[in-house]
Amino acid sequence: MKFDIITIFPKILDSYFGESILKRAQFKNLITIKTHNLRDFALDKHRKVDDSPYGGGPGMVVKADVVDRAVNKIISGKSCRKQKTRIILFSLRGNKFDSKTAKRLSKYDRLVLICGRYEGVDERVAQYIADEEISVGDFVLSGGELAAGVVVDAVSRFIPDVLGKMESLEEIKGSYKVYTKPDVVKIGGKNRVVPKVLLSGDHKKIKEWRQK
User: pLDDT tens-digit profile of 137-157?
Assistant: First the structure.
């Protein structure tokens, strides 16, 4: 799986992608993550990627032509033509991102993730360049980079061998309360104990407790 992230801040996610599970997945060539500086695709000497909106209003808007050049450059080449690619624009008006979406996107060979900034992105990017728009929640972020990080992480978990064991997926095993040693911990001046069923050794009862 290849992730291409288009942004004006190409190093903004380096620390996250360079640690833990995603770092190991890249080392094992299970995934590749590449960021592309949108300014590299501007044609003027000032590397301008935004302009004022038609009709007036506050803020600046990311230009469609610059995004188009970036996407075309990324998906050009013989190898890219054979790949199953999905182009995604992060937007407040996009479909809500969830585990089902992450699993669907994990079936692609390449995801191109377009990160907006400023007042937004020229609507022609959504209409004619992106295959779909995605929102990671009912809140506003300063840009799409954190959303891109969420998508890369969530999608990567569905790629075989990234987690080591697919059973580690909450989507498979479920999400339940967990405890570890010691079985008694003094917190707030009181002894806080592990539920007795988890200490019983009865795997059937433990499974039922977790399902409940």
Answer: 999 999 999 999 999 999 999
